[in-house]
Amino acid sequence: MTAGVTRITVGGNPDGSTYDVVVGADLMGELPGLLGPGVLRVAVVHPASMRRLATAIAARLDTAGCRSVLAEVPDGEAAKAASVAAGLWSLLGRSGFTRSDAVVAVGGGATTDLAGFVAATWLRGVRVVHVPTTVLAMVDAAVGGKTGIDTAEGKNLVGAFHPPAGVLCDLTLLDTLPPGEYASGLAEVVKAGFIADPAVLDLLEGGLETAAAHIGELVVRAVRVKADVVSGDLRESGRREILNYGHTLGHAIERAEAYRWRHGDAISVGMVYAAELAQLAGRLDAAVVERHRSILSGLGLPTAYRGDRWDTLLSAMKVDKKSRGDVLRFVVLDGVGKPGLFEGPDAALLADAYRKVST
Ligand SMILES: NC(=O)c1ccc[n+]([C@@H]2O[C@H](COP(=O)([O-])OP(=O)(O)OC[C@H]3O[C@@H](n4cnc5c(N)ncnc54)[C@H](O)[C@@H]3O)[C@@H](O)[C@H]2O)c1
Ligand SMILES: [Zn+2]
Predict the structure, then answer these.
(1) Within 10 A of 333 (CB to CB), how many other CB atoms are there?
(2) Helix extents (H) in the chain
(3) How far is the CA of 23 from the centre of ligand 1 (A)?
(4) Is residue 324 predicted with pLDDT exceeding 70?
(5) Burial of 223 from C-beta contacts in 10 A (0-12 / 13-18 / 19+)
(6) Would you call 262 a catalytic residue per the annotation?
(7) Average of pLDDT values for 163-191?
(8) Active-site residue, from 41, 46, 146, 329
């Protein structure tokens, strides 16, 4: 046990097993324990920006009796490609990886998605431990078991459910994260606050500096929200849908911007939109809508988008995999911590709500 460490147990695995998300500072000593017994070879998958950390992790694993290989992959979303996965399969093959060997992912959500997918598919599944290095990856991408890569036709179209053996959220790794990435990741923390944990909102009200000062508690609380949801239901149905708060319009904005916007920035606008929609439908107080705006803008996140893009966004929402047929579904709030579904809002209401988030 390391001092000042929080362990969150996540369930929802099809076989009934669980894994721990460990949150704290200077946690690398925890890694061999999370990998579990019997692991000989470990592939440490990382982008160039994480080379130093990955090298230190590999050295530590070797000291613990493993034989590690470093696997450098492209930075960011470029890692989530079939050609990159094929390169890793080839490396695992050449290095003689067996069922009892493992993968460690060191990086943001793009790296954990790719490495998780390779671990899911190598010999139909080997262990993976995630060492997320962005806020977004700590509170979202590394937890829950979704892995995947992109194709030319779209994001996350190829993937597998493959829960990790453990997740190591070492908060000291966030020190080098650029402020824009930091804030964007916090958008998912804001989401956790609105759908399930009002205490998170209190900690975020003071803006980016206060958030950074409380990042440990924020990560723990946001991971707990995601863990509670996925422990009940690993696959995309039922309660898991509440994690899509802000994502219906958010995904449409990402698509309209050809993925040049950060995910968190897009869902920031999406959450304000969902709040406006709920208010127009008589489900949510104006004060809660305003609280969305003040918290998100206080973190430097956008709360409005181009007024001339409604038609584009509406068509994008209709083809999003989260909507069923032509009927749009939104996660909305009936109050803080009270998520619900809004199916098939009429066109005038959708457009009215958009006017309220239009620049
Ligand atoms: N599997 C899931 O459930 C799930 C959930 C949410 C998001 N995702 C995926 O996560 C990805 C986005 O994750 P992300 O926002 O972490 O992006 P990312 O992995 O692209 O990282 C963002 C950038 O930050 C850099 N970086 C990472 N850690 C750093 C650090 N500590 N210091 C300095 N720079 C650092 C990276 O090199 C990269 O350039 C998307 O591909 C998305 O689809 C998956
Ligand atoms: Zn998201």
Answers:
(1) 26
(2) 31-35, 51-63, 82-94, 109-121, 135-136, 179-195, 198-204, 208-213, 215-232, 247-256, 263-280, 286-298, 310-319, 347-356
(3) 18
(4) no
(5) buried
(6) no
(7) 97
(8) 146
Give the position of tokens 């147990």.
9
Ligand 1 atom 33: the closest Cα is on which residue? 177
Q: Which residue is catalytic, options 41, 127, 191, 247?
A: 247
Active site (annotated) includes residue 240: yes
**Crossing angle for the helix pair 286-298 and 179-195, to the nearest 10 degrees:** 160
The yes-or-no verdict on residue 1 having pLDDT over 50 is no
Residue with tokens 């008589």: 282
Does any ligand 1 atom lie closer than 6 A to the CB of residue 172? no
Look at residues 96, 159, 104 and name the one whose alpha carbon lies nearest to residue 127: 104
Tokens of 291: 């609280």
What ligand is nearest to the CA atom of residue 160?
A: 1
Cα-Cα-Cα-Cα dihedral sign, residues 28, 34, 37, 40: negative
Residue 42's pLDDT band (boundaries 50, 70, 90)?
Answer: very high
At residue 239 the predicted structure's pLDDT band, cuts being 50, 70 and 90, is confident
Least distant ligand from the CA of 264: 2
CA distances to 187, 248, 310 from 115, rounded to whole Å, are 24, 27, 36
Cα first-last separation, the chain? 51
pTM for the predicted model, two decimal places:
0.96
